[in-house]
Design brief:
By secondary structure, the chain is of the alpha+beta class. Strands 1-4 form a two-stranded antiparallel sheet. α1 runs parallel beside α15, α7 crosses α12 and α9 crosses α10. The longest helix has 29 residues. The chain starts with a helix and ends with a strand.
Length: about 500
């Protein structure tokens, strides 16, 4: 019963967050946008006081149920561990906590955050690692399935589904996602929660609170027969049946030990001994299993309640050469990020904004100092002024919520004209695409020779009016390099 309740609630959380990463229509955001805001590190970076208080109280009262019910990477490890259990039952053993290693990773993460080495923080953060896997490995599979349904629907005159482009946003992020997936699968398949209790800085922080949690799993020494089934089914390796003790700092309150104990020697209840083995109970004392089940079920339910290619052608006649990204001196960051510094300081590289971007503008940075953090480029689309989805889904405050009106007047960069690429000068044909499609009217066509009004018309950019949306860069017909591109601004400003 206890295990089923935990699995049910964890499944709701896991499916919701996963679909949020996979969904490219923006529909899921309206239903489960609250889930990423409950992630511990993201709540701290966003200064989300309400979420932090909820998570701290849940841990202080119920123990580390966050790791079993709320954290998607923790739940993913349980899924990997399930495959290991299918291969061999009763396979875990008790091991002493490697505290020195846990604290070393925690200190490393904190130090790198203060030093601005975001890539280390991103690789250690559990939610970010899950987002990396979901965006790079799971979303393409989801899109491929959608495209199969779209193909079938199209041939039946239905528009229930529509085709979605599958593309590799950045090779480094794909490689890191594959490596992370393999390592996590191996660790979880072999040893259960090794990552959570050795590497994860969030797990280490929560372990300080869970050590003194009000409710814990305890032994009834009189009923224990030292069969070791509790230790062999503890994926956190925190139960020593020989000394009748449970390491509350590593226990994730999954309920597996209680479920597998055949003698009713384990109970989940009030803390009487601060993590030390329970004293033998009086022979007259009986354990009410129904009360125990109700207590853990209530704890988990409280958590849930609070948590409320086709080849592109030109008219079918000529192949269109793919564009190549220009070398920008300053990277472009989305409106709402305020500045490159704010993005670097708060972003955990979870990839949610990248997976949600409907215009295919955001992709992970390949810069090692800001690896996996989102940057903008306009080879596949441009940042439409009426779109603010990335600011709606960001859980850390790296991209703050911004209205459509404010976005249309926020300058994230400015357009720069490249004379040698402009086709009125190179091919002698009229163009003006950049001026026609500029949503803010920052570009006008002027004669290339001021003294000759009949000379080819070229674009002139009003930098004070340009917002850096990239419409000019994306729609420029010059290939492979656009004749006009957007240079980013370190600090955004109003125009």
């Amino acid at each position: 019963m206890l295990r089923k309740v935990r699995i049910t609630l964890a499944a709701v959380m896991f499916i919701g967050i996963t679909l949020l990463f996979l969904d490219f229509t923006g529909t899921m955001h309206h239903w489960v946008s609250w889930m990423p805001k409950l992630q511990f590190l993201e709540a701290i970076l966003a200064l989300n006081v309400a979420a932090i208080v909820v998570l701290v109280l849940l841990t202080a009262i119920f123990g580390r149920i966050y790791c079993s019910v709320i954290c998607p990477l923790g739940i993913l490890q349980d899924i990997f561990g399930w495959f290991g259990k299918k291969a061999k039952k009763n396979r875990y053993t008790f091991s002493k906590a490697k505290s020195w290693l846990r604290y070393a990773f925690l200190v490393l993460g904190i130090a790198c955050w203060f030093l601005g080495i975001g890539v280390v923080v991103q690789l250690l953060a559990p939610y970010s690692t899950f987002g990396l896997i979901a965006t790079n490995l799971l979303q393409p599979i989801y899109q491929a399935g959608n495209n199969v349904l779209a193909f079938i629907a199209e041939h039946n005159d239905s528009y229930m589904f529509y085709h979605s482009n599958i593309w590799m946003r950045a090779l480094p992020s794909l490689v890191i996602a594959i490596v992370a997936f393999i390592i996590l699968f191996f660790l979880a398949w072999r040893n259960g929660r090794t990552y959570c209790n050795t590497v994860c800085p969030v797990g280490t922080v929560l372990s300080f609170l869970s050590r003194f949690s009000i409710l814990k799993i305890h032994f009834d020494a009189d009923k224990c027969r030292n069969c070791s089934l509790c230790s062999k089914n503890c994926k956190a390796a925190c139960i020593d049946y020989k000394t009748h003790s449970v390491d509350a700092t590593r226990c994730v309150v999954c309920g597996n030990c209680i479920e597998n104990c055949k003698f009713g020697a384990l109970r989940y209840g009030f803390n009487k001994s601060n993590g030390q083995p329970d004293k033998p109970a009086d022979s007259s004392e009986t354990v009410d299993s129904s009360k125990r089940s109700f207590l853990l079920s209530s704890a988990l339910l409280t958590t849930a309640a609070l948590a409320q290619e086709a080849k592109k052608t030109d008219g079918g006649l000529a192949e269109i050469e793919d564009k190549v990204a220009p070398e920008r001196q300053t990277p472009l960051t989305p409106a709402g990020s305020l500045s490159a510094q704010n993005m670097a300081k708060r972003c955990t590289g979870c990839q949610l904004c990248i997976s949600e971007c409907p215009n295919e503008v955001l992709r992970p940075s390949s810069d090692w100092l800001h690896l996996l953090q989102p940057v903008m480029s306009y080879e596949r689309g441009y940042c439409r002024p009426e779109c603010n989805r990335c600011s709606e889904v960001c859980p850390t405050g790296a991209i703050k919520p911004i209205s459509h009106e404010d976005k249309a007047s926020t300058q994230i960069g400015h357009a720069v004209w490249v004379k040698k690429n402009c086709i009125p000068l190179t091919d002698g044909v009229e163009c003006g695409n950049c001026a026609r499609h500029c949503p803010v009217g920052a570009i006008e066509m002027v004669p290339s020779s001021p003294d000759d009004k009949e000379s080819p018309m070229i674009p002139a950019v009003n930098e004070n009016r340009c917002i850096g949306c990239g419409a000019c860069e994306y729609l420029c017909p010059a290939r492979p390099f656009s004749a006009i591109y957007v240079e980013g601004h370190e600090i955004h400003k109003e125009v």
